Amino acid sequence: TATSSGATPQESKTADRPDMHAILKTMRAAHKASPAPTYEERIASLDKLEAALLAHKEDIVRAISTDFGNRSRHESLVSEVFVVVGAIKHARDHLRDWMEPEGREVAWAFLPASAEVQMQPLGVVGIISPWNYPIQLGISPLVGALAAGNRVMIKPSELTPNSSEVLDQIVREVFKPDQVAVITGGPEVGEEFSKLPFDHLVFTGSTRVGKIVMRNASEHLTPVTLELGGKSPTIIGDDFAIEEAALRIIAGKAFNAGQTCIAPDYVFVPAKKVEAFIAGCKKAVAKLYPDIRRNEDYTTIVNERHFDRLRGYLDDAREKGARIIELADAESDRATRKMGPILVVQPGEDTVVMQEEIFGPILPILAYEDLDETIEYVNEHPRPLALYYFGYDQSQIDRVLERTTSGGVSINETMLHVAQDDLPFGGVGPSGMGHYHAHEGFVSFSKKKPVFYQSRLNARSLLLPPYGKAANMFFR
Ligand code: NAD
Questions:
Q1: pLDDT (mean) for 370-375
Q2: What is the DSSP letter of 227?
Q3: Which pLDDT does position 333 carry in this prediction?
Q4: What's the 235 CA to ligand 1 centre distance in angstroms?
Q5: Which of 96, 150, 225, 410 has the fewest CB atoms within 10 Å, counting from its CB?
Q6: Catalytic annotation, residues
């Protein structure tokens, strides 16, 4: 994907990269001149964004596939276009309600005054996004920020330069430069970007970089939403059909070849059902991906560094005595970076695969006897971004929900909570802070402004000296 000058798109962009400080300054001035876009203006922005995404959907599919080696067309359409268009539709349907000031109660002593909460645009919002869903994770926070009436600067990942080009093209087609802009570049650009005095900064990426970003943002007390990663546990209850659980878990794990922040990271299986679960996983892979190497439905690992990292996890687990089961024959195809789903049975706590977020198609299996063991394990580890439980016994479901804390949960499924337009999304502790998607996104990108209106009638009499015995009246 070299340009005519021989430079990669990333390099050629770097040379004429716009000055991010100047862009922010322009956006600030524009915000000052027009601080509250109307409902109609926001709807028009969302409409144009939706139309551009749909018009460019094949460009999106092509660009991401070029960046990855192969990215399933279906996965790109669903996770980068359909999901974002759903978020736009949802915002459009609810925007009038969301923008409406919310009347609040006034205590009797202040009547007949009134009070309300207004939702005010913050100003300029920064977005830093990762490579694994390069369009969705840039545009989805943009939708909430635009609905809330803000201007936005997006810094996408340097690992997916073709996707960044399409993102930039869409943004330029739809928005004026003082409304939305894309700034490309690697970690150094990210550093500089996260030090800008934004009114809010959304970072999606690793926990390690999240800490740097939060530290940088603290210089200006810029509030942050951190969408981070971690190891999302999956627990199969004793009462759930094991073969069906295997199918749903493999489907979640294999989507984007496991390169998903909320992918089921490892799975707890009732001890007596471990072999049946392994058999179920084999059957699921045979059914979903009869072939891996030439299968366009199966996404590649994004680059050699990540491919080697995953291979390293397997070597480490093998050396430490875990059983490795390849469910397809593509484990070692480094040239194409296709890695089929692989099970690691009973890896020890000392294995890298049980310490690091996997972010690839490797699924560790841990046998358990008693549900409380699994709850204890989860609670002894950093709070995860997602948790999955399979079972129909409501008391067991409630036990897991009450006793564990995670960013989100799907019951009897993996990952689908993120696709619900009306649910907020966000981590907890090391998996992140703050929420976006749905109404929560609108709220995160707004200043909730409490406003008190004194009545023409009330002369504040009870609050003015000389107080006399007035204070006692408050406690009657
Ligand atoms: P990453 O943290 O390496 O990079 C993310 C972004 O930060 C990129 O744009 C990168 O250029 C930028 N960056 C890198 N160093 C920086 C620095 N020092 N200062 C400022 N910005 C910097 O993450 P990644 O490898 O692109 O993505 C994978 C991670 O993202 C995984 O941990 C995954 O779980 C997480 N993730 C989370 C979500 C979520 O919604 N919670 C979604 C997708 C991915």
A1: 98
A2: E
A3: 79
A4: 27
A5: 96
A6: 227
| Strand positions, DSSP E, 102-165 | 102-104, 114-121, 124-128, 151-155
What is the band of 476 on the pLDDT scale with cuts at 50, 70, 90?
low
Q: By alpha-carbon position, which residue is closest to atom 39 of ligand 1?
A: 227
- Provide the pLDDT for residue 109: 82
ipTM of the complex: 0.97
Question: Ligand 1 centroid to 129 CA: how many Å?
Answer: 6
| 206 C-alpha to ligand 1 centroid (Å) | 4
> What spacing in Å lies between the alpha carbon of 427 and ligand 1's midpoint?
14
Mean pLDDT of 421-442: 98
Nearest CA to ligand 1 atom 32: 206
- Can you give the length of the chain in residues? 476
Closest atom of ligand 1 to CA, residue 157:
9
Give φ, ψ of 463 to 5 degrees: -100, -5
Distance CA 438, CA 120 (A): 17
Q: Whose CA is nearest to atom 14 of ligand 1?
A: 187
Predicted confidence band of residue 334 (pLDDT cuts 50, 70, 90): confident
Which of 204, 30, 35, 17 minimizes the C-alpha distance to 127?
204
Q: What distance in Å separates the CA atoms of residue 265 and residue 365, rounded to the nearest whole number?
A: 10
Structure tokens at 358: 């996997």
* Range list of H helices, 100-185: 136-147, 161-174
Tell me the average pLDDT of the chain: 94
Average pLDDT estimate for 33-47? 98
Q: What is the DSSP letter of 432?
A: E
